[in-house]
Amino acid sequence: ASPIITPALDIFSLITADFKVNEITTHDLLDLNTLPQYSGEIKASTITFPSVGDKYGILTIDGTEVEADLYFGDTRRELKLGLGQYNGSCFPGTGGTILISGHNNSAFKDLKSAKVGNKVNIRTNYGVYVYEITGTAIKKNTDKTAYDLFKNEENLVLYTCYPFDRLGLTADRYFVYGKIVAGPKVLVRE
CB 3.0-4.6 Å disulfide test: which of 68, 131, 139, 187 passes with 107? Predict the structure, then answer.
């Protein structure tokens, strides 16, 4: 009965959970007059990076219905609220892998419409970043080759459970890969 009871309990806990969120406002993220534009450099010491659980951005994908709040952390709490960035991955602009997940029945329900060449836009509290989708893949949830957290170039990896019409955890994941095309570089070493 575990394959039936565990997903049912997970869904029940998501529905009944009460979360408090340390949020920045959507207006703060959409006011481009207060953000660095799509290029240049920012000193890391001038940025207030988020703590686990904080909302720090909005992610949209051109050509899809994906538009969701982005939180730092990928626990049930963050994924109930929107998209969650794995806290072992890099922030946009810092030159490494950004690993972001979302549920296939909410924030990433239309991830299947993402096509090679589409743009992924991430508006953070310190800049605006644009990534071009370079590929998609379906891989097992245990496949550690699906992403590389130690890559020496900025890249974006989005993923969700697959197939899209299933509730609960599945054995497969749908991945979308992207390369950076615009956004200010964060100078970590000043």
Answer: 68
Is the separation of the CB atoms in 96 and 149 below 8 Å?
A: yes
Q: Two tokens at 32?
A: 């481009």
Cα angle 71, 170, 5; round to 5: 100
Count of CA atoms in the C-beta half-sphere (13 A) of 95:
9
Q: Using CA of residue 98, residue 20, residue 60, residue 112, what is the dihedral sign?
A: positive
In whole angstroms, what is the distance from residue 112 CA to residue 73 CA?
23
SS (H, E, C) 13-75: HHHHCCCCCCCCCHHHHHCHHHCCCCCCEEEHHHCCCCCCCCEEEEEEECCCCCEEEEEECCC
